[in-house]
Design goal:
Blueprint lengths: L1 E2 L10 H8 L7 E7 L2 E5 L6 H5 L9 E4 L9 E12 L8 E14 L3 E2 L1 H12 L8 H9 L5 E6 L19 E2 L8 E2 L4 E7 L6 H4 L3 E2 L1 H10 L2 E3 H8 L3 E6 L6 E8 L14 E6 L2 E6 L3 E3 L16 H5 L3 E3 L4 E4 L6
Parallel strand pairs: 1-12, 5-11, 13-18
Antiparallel strand pairs: 2-3, 2-4, 5-6, 7-10, 8-9, 8-11, 14-15, 15-20, 16-17, 19-20
Amino acid sequence: PIRCGFARSQLADLPTLVAEQVGVEWESVVPTRVHKNYIQDVFLDKNALTKELGRLPAGAPLTLFELPTAESAAGTMVRFVQREVESIQYLLLPPYRAKLIGHPILMSLTQPSITPSQLYEAVLAKTLQFVHESERERALERAHEGKYPFELKTVAGTGAVCSQCRWTDKHCLGCLIDPSSRDTVELGNLCTLAIDWEMDFFSAHEEQAVRRHESVDQQEQTLHASYSLLSCMEADARPEKLEYKCSACESSWHTSQTLVDHAPDILAVHLKRFTAEYVDGKFRSSKNHTMVEIPLDQGLDLSSCLLYTSDAADEEDSVDLGGRRIIKKKKRTR
């Protein structure tokens, strides 16, 4: 796996960036949203992906799964979660507990009907890299005998409970898919299967190995960048361009407005951290985590923000409105 970093302003060029930084064509990947250790959403419609990405908070991961061929995207998508099944001895509780481990997996099957042995072989080929290097040969030998270093079970989307048994049966962690069975397995699109590992074979170090692209460091520096309070106030005090039109003669005036004020004895500053966006008929708020440095020891010089001066009010192209704002008049156009 390769971890890359992109800014929100680069979302429109995401296909090009993926091809440049990862070396994978956009047509052969499937974008997903991963929550903890399972795949929460799969964005099969890439045209609506930009709209979906607007809901992600800053720093949230977007996982792209590469498919062998572009035609595989038309097959049956199957989501996999990796689990470790532990035995517990508590009164009135199930004897086993499943814990999600590692990264989820997304595979594309050419046919929705497949034999259990074919399914196990496909999963083994995908996950053999997660097996201890010293145990890979033994895992392949056992696979020829029909014994695999894991068990496949049908589970719900979160990978916690069985998808076939009733909710009242709390002891079922997933119905087993027997690799020796000759019956075909019918898999629905975007169904979820659990890979219950024998922990003697599973290597957490191999599974967690990720190549880090230099763009991650660049975006993390941007994400955790800090600004001074003075620079924020200077940006807020920039001139605002206005245009007025006369409803009678349709003449227009282009003016420039700048809010100004005198330095107070006590300054109260409110940082606008939350931004509301109207998406799909609902308001969604996002928080800006940018650090703002406040110079408490050095003091705060507001001379660059207080643009009002008595000399400016005396100029012919300025109008003094009580020291609150200055409007610079420009030539009238018809």
